[in-house]
Amino acid sequence: MMGRDSTDLTLEMLNEEVRMIWDANAPFWASYMGAEGNSFHRLLVAPSAERLLALQAGEEVLELACGGGLFVKQMARLGARVVATDFSSVFLELARERVAEFEDQVQFVQVDATHEEEIVALGEQRFDAAVCNMGIMDMAEIDPLMRGLAQVLKPGGRFVFTIMHPCFNSSHVTMGVETRDESGEIITERFLKKTKYLYMEPEKGTGIVGQPLPQYYFHRPLHKLLGSAFRVGFTMDGIEEPAFGGIEEPKARVHWPDFHEFPPVLAVRLRLRQ
Length: 274
Ligand SMILES: C[S@@+](CC[C@H](N)C(=O)[O-])C[C@H]1O[C@@H](n2cnc3c(N)ncnc32)[C@H](O)[C@@H]1O
Hints:
CATH class: Alpha Beta
Radius of gyration: 19 Å
Number of helices: 7
CATH architecture: 3-Layer(aba) Sandwich
Strand content: 25-35%
Structural class: alpha/beta
Order of helices and strands: HHEHEHEHEHEEEEEHEE
Largest sheet: 7 strands, mixed
Shape: globular
CATH topology: Rossmann fold
Number of domains: 1
Number of strands: 11
Distance between the termini: 34 Å
Helix content: 25-40%
Bound molecules: S-adenosylmethionine
């Protein structure tokens, strides 16, 4: 902690609380996700991340915030060598169990992505690629992550992240359905009402209904999110905004699979300049 000022200390305390919450939620999350993940993971996150990463067998890839290891397993199946990291020791243990059959290809390391030095300790210019699925909005700070990645990726290396879409999927969003009669035709439309975007303090919310503790969300508007990467030498050369497909009949309560016009997930590929 030497050399850290009071802002750093406050952040560090917040970060510790974030970790404690994830340790507490990890078993519930891993069991809810099951063997293949929930619809968000299966239909939106994993396909976009896999396409943008475009892994080649034998490549070495770093995963940050790997959670219960769903994507670790997917990358190992593709023949990648994976260094899987998370700051939650509980999640790491669950992930280790999930990918036991790939133990020759996967190494687990406890890394707090808000600590640049822990990322750099993995090895400078070591990785062909890095990935972080649905984790960045859960991190108290992202500048250390971007700085760390700029050092551990090979020149030209790529970093793919998926995140709750900051424009559509955050707190201060209300989902609704309205039905009207337009000259005899009954029109039903879903809408989102968003009341905050540029300025939002860290807030707690529920990722999965029934989880033991509410988790923190650290909303960042796009210029802050991407600005942090651009400052350390990344450029953006891939983007997807995956959304759910089919339209179901409106229900009393709407949720994300009811929306096909708004992407709840943003998937980005950044590339380190050569
Ligand atoms: C919503 S879960 C996503 C897990 C997994 N990537 C997935 O897609 O299923 C968020 C993850 O971020 C991790 N996380 C949050 N802050 C972190 C930090 N500072 N360093 C490392 N991991 C962090 C949590 O432990 C948790 O595993």
